[in-house]
TrEMBL record:
The gene is dinB. Its main location: cytoplasm. Binds 2 magnesium ions per subunit. This is DNA polymerase IV. It comes from Fodinibius salicampi. Its cofactor is Mg(2+).
Length: 369
């Protein structure tokens, strides 16, 4: 698999995190089809879906209008990000009982390197069991875990036995496991890429193995190198607990192409709220807002503008993104992906966040300059 030293990596992924917190805190939602985000009138997008509503085909990033068609009796709940952040902090405190090498990916998932750990336990599987037990005891929520010798395989493993599952991929088993794996289960292969691969008769890892790196690059561009490596279980990325963030953003790929401009504006406002919560959680702000748009024909564009001061309020982010939207063809052309990113963050030379500057005005610079 690799000439690198064998590491012990755990990927922890909370089960339907936002929805599970709501069901925990409000007994009336338990065992009910709960959707966090969006609204019963069909506006917005699904931020999280309980397992009860997933049975109807509802999942995150789906337009609320479609979710209602699939499950008319679904219960819509407004996100409570402050609560989610508090619970996420509790969970991370558990992680640090075992290792300092913790790389959070979001509020509800993280990588842990337990090759060396605080309790001197040689088994990553046993550590994963202990972590899941402590999370349940501390938060009354369930987590799924994947254990492997690299991040890519650990990420796949955590999704194999959801919810409340634990899966292990041993180094000796990795090659056979990847050969049998459906191509759509490979982390990083989305629906559009899966369809393209299927059109090329690539349905499993074994099919992908037949392709050379040169041919994959020719067919898929630079990401072809990534596909060549992951099907061979090659991933040398380290768990990095102190990554310097150059930007903070979120994007969503929709299950249906969207051409309703009103819906898009509402979605951008919801996305801005999520980004604002994330930035405040990290005590960071940015000066540059970038809107990303991918049209139905996969053409991808971006539009940016910069402030003279730092911002992290949802209203500032959403207003700017909606202004940038006017420079696109959204409304005339269908879109399949939208994203907002804030960059030019208030970082010091050592990668630490500097004290926020207070914005005295809301004037943006000309985005065309």
């Amino acid at each position: 698999m690799s000439d690198q030293p064998v590491r012990k990596i755990i990927h922890i992924d909370m089960d339907a995190f936002y929805a599970s917190v709501e069901q925990r805190d409000f007994p009336k939602y338990r065992d009910k089809p709960v959707i966090v985000g969006g609204s019963p009138d069909g506006r917005g997008v699904v931020a999280a879906a309980s397992y009860e509503v997933r049975k109807f085909g509802v999942h995150s990033a789906m337009p609320a209008a479609k979710a209602i068609r699939l499950c008319p009796h679904a219960i819509f709940v407004k996100p409570r990000f402050k609560v989610y952040r508090k619970v996420s902090k509790q969970i991370r405190e558990i992680f640090f009982q075992f290792t300092d090498l913790v790389e959070p990916l979001s509020l509800d998932e993280a990588y842990l390197d337990v090759t060396e750990n605080h309790i001197d336990l040689p088994s990553a599987t046993l550590i994963a069991q202990k972590i899941r037990k402590l999370i349940k005891e501390k938060t009354n929520l369930t987590a799924s875990a994947g254990v492997a010798h690299n991040k890519f395989l650990a990420k796949i493993a955590s999704d194999l036995d959801k919810p409340d599952g634990l899966s292990v991929i041993l180094p000796a088993d990795a090659n056979d496991f990847l050969k049998k794996l459906n191509i759509g289960k490979f982390h990083g292969v989305g629906e559009a890429t899966e369809a393209k691969m299927n059109a090329l008769d690539i349905y499993t890892g074994e099919d992908l193995l037949q392709w050379s790196e040169v041919d994959l690059v020719q067919e898929f561009g630079k990401v072809g190198r990534h596909y060549y490596r992951i099907v061979r279980g090659i991933d040398h990325r380290e768990v990095k607990p102190h990554r310097i963030r150059k930007s903070i953003g979120k994007e969503r790929t929709f299950t249906e192409d969207i051409n309703d401009l009103g819906w898009v504006n509402n979605f951008l406002s919801e996305l801005a709220q999520e980004i604002s919560e994330s930035m405040k959680n990290k005590e960071v702000a940015g000066k540059t807002v970038t809107l990303k748009v991918r049209y139905a024909d996969f053409e991808t564009i971006s539009r940016s503008t910069s402030f003279s001061h730092y911002i992290n309020e949802a209203e500032d982010i959403s207003k700017t993104a909606i202004q940038l939207l006017e420079e696109t063809e959204v409304g005339d052309r269908k879109v399949r992906l939208l994203g907002i990113t804030l960059s030019n963050l208030n970082l010091g030379q050592a990668g630490r966040y500097k004290q926020l500057e207070i914005p005295f005005n809301n004037t943006t610079t000309d985005p065309h300059k």
